[in-house]
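In the design runs reported in the main text, the only information available to the sequence generator was the tokenized backbone. The following block is the verbatim input for one such run; it is reproduced so that readers can re-run the procedure and compare outputs position by position.
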């Protein structure tokens, strides 16, 4: 059986295959608008399944609805039990304004060391890396102690109802494993002269809040006969803008500030001062710390009134709320009640879109990810911090199943992850990150599963 270093060397030899695979995946526009029929993930799943089948890797596509395929592939291990799950998703967000793109959004053009296209980074890059790692393990005939499973879900971009949410409910046995690695982490920051990787241990929750504000209609020429709901909206917005969320430093990242050359231990009292200092040196890290130290409440849409000459009777303010892993909907509701205290005619509707959760950072699995990364990059000088992502991923469906789930895509230190522009115009990924991501997935699976 080949040694790991020999296998890692094969990743470089497979560069053309890897790049082709990634580009072909981008060229299949599995766009998810959130409104059925949409997604078309089965086409991407079919392509991936055929690619894996070339090496006799067993694959299965399970559809939650017509066209909404979820890809499951596996390399069997001696025990017959699943151990490590490589996760990603097949769908991509829509292209907002194609005219702003410098590259065809589904053309997968390569320019100056980067591959451009919708899904290049989110999440077809990670999928390609995991598929290539699986192929290399298979070709080398590496004997595994337990099963390695690859699962790429549908519908991640609109909540996972047809993807991992559905799999967790209907087919838990197919994806159940003690360990999983997914998107939602693995980028790096250059802090105080050191390369620091973010290991995604959890994600904030998301709630959508609808505030229905009632007034009384009247003809706009005699407004005093009515009760203008717009003025109530104005008061509510003023209060939301002035809202100071409770500061919270319980996220594990705050235990590792010394890694980032920050001397003071963070407390709810001093965290804003620390963040301000960090922000001046590294705006990206400052923003991460800010998001991880509080709930956010952001009014995003306003609608109201039905006619230009009527006093509006009803207005609606929609808010996006992101909660920390231990803040539940009762917490969010309590905060809203405080903000709205004393205001009449306001009805609050909360839709819980994504439950926050997190895995512990202090695990053997985390150590193995760090080791696989150092080995793959040939770097013994990397720093690590646990991070909670501000958006949500499918990982939240695995953690309640008892799976230690981390976000780690393994970007290359030479690639600037700010250029990834996930969900944005000119989304891209650095080709070095495709190679490093593949090497890391390979090293991780080898470390955990190879029989030596
Ligand atoms: Zn994604």
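Verbatim output:
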């Amino acid at each position: 059986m080949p040694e790991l270093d020999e296998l890692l060397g094969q990743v470089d030899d497979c560069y053309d295959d890897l790049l082709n695979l990634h580009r072909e995946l981008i060229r299949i526009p599995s766009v998810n608008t959130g409104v059925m029929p949409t997604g078309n993930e089965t086409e991407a799943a079919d392509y991936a399944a055929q690619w894996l089948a070339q090496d006799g890797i067993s694959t299965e596509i399970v559809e939650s609805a017509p066209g909404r395929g979820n890809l499951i592939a596996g390399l069997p291990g001696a025990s017959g039990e699943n151990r490590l799950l490589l996760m990603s998703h097949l769908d991509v967000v829509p292209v907002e304004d194609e005219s702003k793109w410098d590259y065809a959004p589904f053309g997968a053009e390569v320019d100056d060391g980067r591959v451009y296209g919708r899904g290049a980074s989110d999440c077809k890059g990670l999928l390609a890396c995991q598929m290539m790692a699986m192929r290399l393990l298979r070709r080398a005939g590496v004997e595994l102690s337990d099963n390695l499973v690859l699962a790429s879900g549908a519908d991640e971009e609109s909540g996972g109802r047809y993807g991992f949410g559905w799999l967790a409910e209907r087919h838990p046995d197919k994806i159940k494993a003690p360990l999983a690695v997914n998107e939602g982490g693995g980028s790096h920051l250059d802090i105080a002269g050191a390369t620091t990787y973010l290991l995604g241990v959890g994600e904030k929750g998301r709630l959508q809040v609808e505030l229905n504000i009632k007034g009384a209609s009247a003809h706009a020429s005699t407004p005093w006969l009515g009760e203008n709901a717009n003025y109530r909206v104005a008061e509510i917005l003023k209060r939301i803008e002035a809202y100071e969320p409770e500061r919270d430093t319980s996220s594990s990242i705050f235990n590792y500030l010394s890694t980032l050359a920050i001397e003071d231990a963070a407390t709810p009292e001093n965290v804003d001062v620390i963040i301000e200092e960090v922000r001046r040196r590294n705006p990206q890290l400052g923003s991460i710390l800010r998001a991880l130290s509080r709930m956010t409440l952001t009014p995003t849409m306003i609608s109201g009134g039905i006619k230009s000459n009527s006093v509006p009777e009803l207005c609606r303010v929609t808010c996006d709320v992101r909660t920390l892993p231990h803040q539940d909907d009762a917490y969010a509701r309590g905060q809203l009640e405080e903000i709205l205290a004393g205001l009449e005619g306001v009805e609050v509707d909360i839709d819980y879109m994504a439950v926050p959760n997190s895995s512990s950072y202090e695990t053997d699995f985390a150590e193995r990810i760090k080791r696989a990364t150092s080995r793959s990059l040939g770097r013994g000088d990397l720093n690590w911090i646990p991070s909670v992502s501000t958006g949500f991923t499918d990982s939240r469906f695995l953690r309640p199943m008892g799976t230690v789930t981390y976000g780690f895509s393994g970007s290359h230190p030479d690639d600037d992850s700010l250029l990834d522009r996930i969900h944005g115009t000119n989304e891209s990924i650095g080709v070095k990150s495709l190679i490093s991501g593949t090497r890391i997935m390979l090293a991780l699976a080898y470390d955990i599963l190879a029989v030596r």
